[in-house]
Description:
By secondary structure, the chain is an alpha/beta fold. The chain has one domain (19-163): Glutaredoxin (3-Layer(aba) Sandwich). Helices cover 20% and strands 40% of the residues. The strands form 2 sheets. Strands 1, 2, 4, 6, 8, 9, 10 and 11 form an 8-stranded mixed beta sheet that branches. The protein has a 3-stranded parallel beta sheet with strand order 3-5-7, with no helix packed on it.
Amino acid sequence: MAAVADPYANVSPPAEPSCTNAKITVNANGKTNSISPGCYRGDITVNAGATLNLSPGIYYLDGANLSVAGNATITGSGVTLVDFWAEWCGPCRRLAPTVEALATEYDGRITVAKMNVDENPNTPGRFMIRGIPTMLIFKNGELADQIVGLVGKEEITRKLDAQL
């Protein structure tokens, strides 16, 4: 049997910006704590009763060990799109430029986070994610919609616009 070529072999996700290696701990101190858009590696811990706010922009959480305890929350004001992906996933690599383009087109109106499921194995399970690519759309911190599989930009745009 002849080997089948990977149709996604020449498709690579856009390069990530340089990453911040930092340990970020958010405690319940009665105020909302924020981090700026960018790439984060290291531990991000949101303790029980604490809130971490993500302002509009794109966040690369691929190398971050994200831990959210008890009644802690991660919020974005308005609409947040979270792209769950993996380096070995061909459809994820093919979808990556679309997610990047949407982050640019919706700049200032939505927050986009990309999370590598291999480097963050616990987070997808919290949302019952069974396959990738999967994108979750949150509105004001609540899960509003889900997109599973390789879909066109038009479908993602339609679902985002429905939440704005």
